[in-house]
Design a protein that fits this description.
14 helices
């Protein structure tokens, strides 16, 4: 049924016939069509430049030379959006594959429309770029790319990071993949995948684009990552983990897209906590009768960190 729906949508758009004209009003923009409810022209006028700017920017980042037609449905009512998408209560947008059809909540009650729209556009345009090879990209990398291209991590997205702290570590590759679309540790997986993409951008300039190009040529994810950055997925995770304290250095570059200060602070705290526990355990095993560490020594150790 979804294939039939998408096919009919494309036919209607191609001949210029408004789909369900009594329910939606369409506005062509940059190879797409923005739909709003009749009477919501003000919503359309505010969103059209956002769609134009974000689609152009993200298409350039992903190497999409020409955007193929797909619709964007903007809901000014949270209730209507939830009724039509039928998904989890915290959903703000979705990109449907194949086809790239987007549904976003622009009621203003949650995140800014630009962020949500950019995130979903990244999914839709990445789907176009990879075509039949879209399934080669792991879900967590897809989500990390969309998060990286849409907006840095914000404080209102940090609730799930408590999972990482509680588990006293970061997610494994299998845990990252199992987190999407609605698995355990999903919020923490969003944070970690964005941070890992940021690390790749910082440490291996151009690697993300090279990886996408290789995937679009039909190479496996592991082959694409190896050719783009000289890494396996396991090495990527391991080196990112070792570089966590270096995130504090990135924060000096305020104009950089890899500035994720809330996440950096928490990850650094996790790293220090792990290191302190490890050293305490080693001291207990190797020197069971050692004297209790003096407060000033603990203070000196933290200052050295």
């Amino acid at each position: 049924m979804r294939v039939v729906r998408i096919a009919w949508l494309l036919v209607c758009l191609g001949v210029g016939i408004p789909l369900a004209a009594s329910s939606w009003a369409g506005y062509p923009v940059e190879g797409m069509v923005l739909y709003v409810r009749p009477g919501q022209e003000r919503v359309a006028r505010s969103l059209l430049p956002v769609v134009r700017e974000e689609a152009s920017r993200i298409a350039g980042e992903l190497g999409v030379t020409k955007i193929r037609l797909f619709p964007i449905y903007a809901y000014a009512s949270r209730g209507e959006f939830f009724r039509d998408t039928g998904r989890q209560p915290d959903l703000l947008g979705e990109s449907l594959s194949p086809g790239g059809e987007i549904h976003i909540d622009v009621s203003g009650s949650r995140d800014p429309p630009r962020r949500v729209l950019a995130h979903e556009l990244a999914h839709s345009l990445l789907d176009q770029r990879l075509g039949m090879y879209g399934g080669l990209l792991p879900h967590w990398v897809n989500e990390g790319l969309a998060g990286h291209l849409s907006d840095p991590v914000s404080t209102d997205q940090l609730a799930g990071v408590s999972n990482m702290i509680h588990r006293d570590g970061v997610l494994s590759l299998s845990e990252l993949e199992e987190a999407f679309p609605s698995g355990p540790y999903r919020d923490a997986a969003y944070l970690q995948s964005r941070s890992m993409i940021a690390w790749l951008v910082w440490q291996h300039p151009g690697a993300v684009r090279r990886m996408i190009d290789a995937l679009a040529d039909g190479r496996s994810f592991h082959q694409a990552l190896r050719s783009a950055a000289g890494l396996t997925a396991e090495e990527w995770l391991a080196r990112w983990r070792r570089s966590v304290p270096a995130i504090i250095y990135w924060l000096t570059y305020l104009s950089s897209p890899v500035v994720y200060s809330p996440l950096a602070a928490i990850l650094i705290w996790v790293f220090i906590r792990r290191l302190l526990r490890k050293r305490a355990k080693e001291a207990e095993e190797n020197e069971p009768e050692a004297e209790v560490e003096k407060p000033e020594e603990t203070q000196q150790f933290l200052e050295d960190m």
